[in-house]
Write a structure and sequence with these properties.
Number of strands: 13
Number of domains: 2
Number of helices: 6
Bound molecules: biotin
Shape: globular
Structural class: alpha+beta
Distance between the termini: 33 Å
CATH superfamily of the largest domain: Bira Bifunctional Protein, Domain 2
Strand content: 25-35%
Largest sheet: 7 strands, mixed
Oligomer: single chain
Radius of gyration: 18 Å
CATH class of the largest domain: Alpha Beta
Order of helices and strands: HEHEEHEEEEHHHEEEEEE
Helix content: 10-25%
Strand order of the largest sheet: 1-2-3-7-6-5-4
CATH architecture of the largest domain: 2-Layer Sandwich
Length: 271
């Protein structure tokens, strides 16, 4: 069922302190990330959020498209202006964790994160995060965290069917996107606060939600299967991937060209 986002209802539900207080609802846009990219950093307020009902050229990681039915899902971008660049990967993962946590409150399933920034349930993708930053020297002038979550979509394109799922498919009912977005923003705000304060427990929370955490996994680096097996230790305080190899040597990876291949595809619990 395609519906226009109800901005008034959303604003009634929103209990965050600053995230989403400045809010733009677009009926149609190419991409919410692109929309915010075009606004100069000096005109952007930290915490501004843009949501679109119909995102016609949604973008995903690795130059892939993010395609969703208009008016059925959540497609939105947060504009943040953090004072450091270090740990932005952890911030992205924390945003994904916030989404997973909120979805779990609505549907009693185990939602997990798949490195680098996907949200999974029942071995299917329910959401994804695309973070894009612009820098002034070494400092970020704006960080755009674009999030897509499948909420009320009932059917998917043939090429997505095996791998995509929506909240409504899981629960067999319709969900209020306004209420969900308000909850998601409140939860992201809380985790952002932890990230900004360098809370030492944040990377552990993220790690325990990652698929394959604590398991022996294979790694795919730049499309090539790396030799041997690696024990997946989650992420560190910067959000870098931590693994040890069979000789018990520790390796960290920061780039997203790494894929983790789990043997039994088992999904670890969030917290
Ligand atoms: C991925 O899983 O590849 C990331 C998908 C991110 C999609 C969201 S939808 C809102 C925002 N605008 C975009 O164009 N992309 C992100």
């Amino acid at each position: 069922m395609s519906q226009l986002f109800d901005k008034e209802l959303f604003q009634k539900k929103l209990t965050s302190r600053w995230l989403g207080k400045e809010f733009v609802h677009l009926k149609k846009v190419d991409s919410t990330n692109l929309y915010l990219k075009k606004i100069p950093a000096e005109n952007l307020r930290h915490g501004m959020v843009v949501v679109a009902d119909d995102q016609q050229k949604g973008r995903g990681q690795h130059q892939k498209d993010w395609v969703t039915n208009p008016g059925e899902n959540l497609t939105f971008t947060l504009a943040l202006k953090p004072d450091r660049a270090e740990g932005l990967s952890l911030l992205t993962l924390s945003s994904a964790l916030a989404v997973a946590d909120v979805l779990h409150r609505y549907v009693e399933k185990t939602f997990s994160l798949k490195w680098p920034n996907d949200i999974y349930v029942d071995q299917k993708k329910i959401g994804g995060v695309l973070t894009e930053c612009s820098f002034l020297g070494a400092n970020p002038e704006k960080v755009l965290i674009g999030i897509g979550v499948n909420i009320n979509q009932k059917t998917f394109e043939e090429e997505q069917v095996g791998n995509a799922v929506s909240l409504s498919q899981l629960a067999g009912k319709y969900f209020s996107r306004e209420e969900l977005l308000a909850d998601i923003l409140k939860t992201i705000e809380q985790l952002y606060q932890s990230w900004a304060e360098r809370d030492k427990t944040l990377h552990r929370k993220v790690s325990s939600a990652l698929i394959g955490y604590g398991d022996w996994v294979r790694l795919n680096v730049d499309g090539e299967l790396a030799e041997g097996r690696y024990k997946f230790l989650g992420v560190n305080e910067k959000g870098e991937l931590l693994v040890i190899n069979e000789k018990l040597e520790l390796n960290t990876y920061s780039h997203e060209q790494i894929r983790i291949i789990t043997g039994n595809k088992s999904i670890s619990k969030i917290r």
